[in-house]
Amino acid sequence: MKPTRQSVATARPEHPRITLAEFLALIESHHPFARMLGIEILEIGFGTARLALPPNPDFQRLGGIVAGPMLMGLADLALYAAVVGATGNAEAVTSSLTINFLRKSPPGIIYADARVLKTGRLCAGDVTLTAEGSSEALAHSVSTWSLPGRKA
Description:
The protein contains three helices and six strands; from the N terminus they run ααββαββββ. It has helices at about 20-30, 35, 70-85; strands at about 40-45, 50-55, 95-100, 110-120, 120-130, 135-145. A six-stranded antiparallel beta sheet has the order 1-2-4-5-6-3. It is globular, with a radius of gyration of 16 Å. Residues about 1-5 have low confidence and may be disordered.
């Protein structure tokens, strides 16, 4: 009998496959671009992550709103954290990323809440971005991830 794949929502173990400290070391050693944005990794769970983009006037475009590329970078890194938390595979790479900007992103802290919806050879998940002090979504991102096999 062939085993069936479970969704991440129904197959969550108690602990992530990488600790927050291990993920921070991974980011520092292999993904230094995250440091350029000053993104803070607040939580990592099994298939979940919460990150924050701190306020920075350099991230604003005309009208004082946070520029889209900064929000896309935040969303991408947030789902990477969730994927690694669910799979332990640090070699995961983005296959596709779509973002819908729902309203203007005010200056201030922007939070990213990521969740993995499916794991397997490919992972899929989404990220909701919110502003500090608000539960209204500023943007919603959906992306898929390729999980290359590890070489012995």
